[in-house]
């Protein structure tokens, strides 16, 4: 049933892009890293990122099925391990096997499905997000997370998910949306691993 919903989602994305004159073969699929592991996880976590770096026509599930690659995904894997395991000491989760297991248990999506480069242009990402909003919302509903970690994407999620945010309290780190807890967090690129792990621990404990 879930696999059918995903097939229908990506078919809708391809048809939508075709109607916009966007080459559908450039779509990089994302979402569940491993559906079975995600469904069995004790916490359902979704990381919302900007775009993927130079991976046209790819699938994050294929890229990450053997564990984290590149610094960014190692960082996300550590954050995932912390949340899933109630934040033990950093030294206990700074282990490739634990990081791999944790990464397979979460989901990750990019707001912009067309592959980008090393630098993400938020003007372009927001333009794609507005265009694709109906499909992004549908994708998040399919993933059905309990916790959404907005990795440098919180400002976009305010209007994508219609978050109830006080404009005078934009530094507030957590927002409840229906059954979702949306956490305003930083992008994992060039993150100090131990420091950001400890900061995320403090935030989630609060």
CATH class: Alpha Beta
Q: From the 3D coordinates, which CATH architecture would you assign?
A: 3-Layer(aba) Sandwich
Overall shape: globular
Roughly how much helix do the residues carry, as a percent range?
Answer: 40-55%
In the predicted model, the low-confidence regions spanning at least 5 consecutive residues are none
Major beta-sheet overview: 6 strands, mixed
What is the string of helix and strand elements?
A: HEHEHHHHEHHEHEEH
| CATH fold title | Uracil-DNA Glycosylase, subunit E
Strand order of the largest sheet: 1-3-2-4-6-5
Structural class: alpha/beta
List the helices and strands and how they pair.
Layout: H1 2-19, E1 31-32, H2 35-40, E2 45-49, H3 60-64, H4 70-84, H5 90-93, H6 96-104, E3 107-110, H7 122-131, H8 133-143, E4 147-151, H9 154-160, E5 174-177, E6 180-185, H10 193-205
Defining key terms:
six-stranded mixed sheet; alpha/beta; 206 residues; Uracil-DNA Glycosylase, subunit E
Give an overview of the whole structure.
This protein is α/β, with parallel strands linked by helices and 206 residues long. The protein has one domain: Uracil-DNA Glycosylase, subunit E. The protein has 10 helices and 6 strands. The chain has helices at residues 2-19, 35-40, 60-64, 70-84, 90-93, 96-104, 122-131, 133-143, 154-160, 193-205; strands at residues 31-32, 45-49, 107-110, 147-151, 174-177, 180-185. Strands 1-3-2-4-6-5 form a 6-stranded mixed beta sheet, covered by helices on one side. Helix 1 runs antiparallel to helix 8 (133-143) and helix 4 (70-84) packs parallel to helix 10. The longest helix is centred in the N-terminal third of the chain and has 18 residues, at 2-19. It is globular and about 50 Å long. It starts with a helix and ends with a helix. The relative contact order is 0.17. The model has no long low-confidence stretch (mean pLDDT 93).
């Amino acid at each position: 049933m879930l696999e059918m919903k995903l097939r229908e989602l990506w078919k809708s994305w391809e048809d939508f892009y075709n109607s916009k004159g966007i080459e559908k073969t450039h779509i990089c699929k994302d979402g569940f890293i491993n559906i079975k592991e995600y469904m069995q996880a004790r916490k359902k976590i979704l990381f919302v990122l900007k775009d993927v770096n130079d991976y046209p026509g790819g699938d994050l599930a294929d890229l990450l099925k053997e564990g984290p690659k590149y610094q960014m995904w190692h960082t996300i894997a550590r954050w995932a391990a912390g949340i899933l395991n109630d934040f033990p000491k950093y030294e206990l989760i700074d282990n490739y096997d634990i990081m791999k297991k944790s990464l397979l248990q979460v989901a990750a999506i990019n707001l912009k499905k067309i592959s980008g480069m090393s630098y993400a242009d938020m003007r372009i990402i927001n333009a794609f997000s507005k265009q694709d909003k109906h499909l992004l919302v549908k994708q998040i509903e399919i993933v059905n997370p309990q916790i959404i970690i907005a990795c440098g994407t919180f400002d976009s999620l305010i209007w994508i998910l219609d978050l109830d945010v006080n404009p005078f309290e934009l530094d507030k780190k957590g927002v409840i949306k229906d059954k979702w807890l949306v956490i305003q967090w930083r992008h994992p690129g060039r993150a100090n691993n131990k420091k950001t792990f400890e900061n995320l621990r403090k935030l989630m404990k609060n």
